[in-house]
Design brief:
The protein contains three helices and five strands; from the N terminus they run βαβββααβ. By secondary structure, it is an alpha/beta fold. The protein is globular, with a radius of gyration of 16 Å.
Length: 146
Amino acid sequence: MRVVVAGGAGFLGSHLCDALIDRGDQVVCVDSFTTGSKRNVAHLSGTSGFELIEADVTTTDAFAIAGPIDAVMNLASPASPKDYLAMPLATLAVGSDGTRNLLELACRHDATFFMASTSEVYGDPLVHPQTEDYWGHVNPIGERSV
């Protein structure tokens, strides 16, 4: 499979890139390095089947990806209250425009689309770990509300 991992240089995204390469997939890692780090994927540089594209998923130029695509995985977004507060509009743009662009990429290639989220959606949870039926403990005007 050839998989596009948006946010692939973030903490979770880089581990996903590792797992996909380990199972024999080809990976196109797309990251703007706003919160992700080149260090997280540096060990994959030069690895057969790994390609790194520095691009912002909120712009359409990020999607000039040549060749077939079997899956698009969206892990692109700042994922902590510190980042939300520092970049509120960029965070909203990634969640809306970035997701739309990635969905359109998947549609153009008839690819599977996967959308990831952060545990921040639960707010400041009262339950650890959070199960799928836990609705969270969210303050709508708190620092996690973005």
